[in-house]
Amino acid sequence: DVEISIGQIVRDFQANAEADNYTEFELEKWSKRIFNLRDSLEHPSTIEIVEDNKLSSTIYGIKIIEQKRRQESLCTNSISETVSYTSEQSTELIPEHFVPMYGPCRLSEDKYVATHSSYRAGLSQLTGSNNYSSGKHSISFLIEKKGIKNMFIGIHSASNEASSSFDRSIYGWWNLDYVIINGEHETGDDNLVIQTGDKITLTVDCDNLQIHFEHHRTRKICHIPIELNTCPFPWRILIRLLMADDSIRICN
Known about the structure:
Layout: H1 2-19, H2 24-42, E1 46-52, E2 61-67, H3 79-87, E3 98-102, E4 105-108, E5 113-116, E6 124-128, E7 136-145, E8 152-157, E9 171-173, E10 179-181, E11 184-187, E12 199-205, E13 210-215, E14 220-225, E15 235-241, E16 247-250
Antiparallel strand pairs: 1-2, 3-6, 4-5, 5-16, 6-15, 7-12, 7-16, 8-9, 8-15, 9-10, 10-11, 12-13, 13-14
């Protein structure tokens, strides 16, 4: 029942928000539940009733045929379309800066610094100004302030709408071992390794279809292979802040 599903999601979210007791895993779970619910509303199953007049009985038969909706691909660009798009891109990119998507956020210093602007915890999402479809590009970040919850650093497909719905094109890290692939938590834990003052370099390697995450203080480098069918070109950086006054800087 749709009404019950919506009510349950709202009650779960309100209860955890009031207690300030939720993690990145809960946010991903709620986003996925909302996405599935929205998908069901937009593509409901239909039932076709057909009278069977061929029966000799005075009681006519009725056939009920459920027409299952066709699963639509979440990716709008095929690989061939992506290659064509890439060939038209200029190799000259302007310096990267933040672009707000949704949630409480304040930009400063020519949009190189993003700060969570709410007085309480809540999701704030930002993307970057540049599209990446070819070559290898490194963007360095400085964690200027971080609360008790982690920040997300990664990429998503620029072809997806900027909404809070579940996004399968998201790849990246909430932490060194907390990996997001196709918008979902894949491996690792939620240990608070990343700290205020840490420098992180995200390398977007379009030619080899992967991204790298370098944590300079621990000298660790992680990488994730990207699937074009779930994350088509062009790619953009994606940042998520959770705690009040969390702040991150692009170091160009």
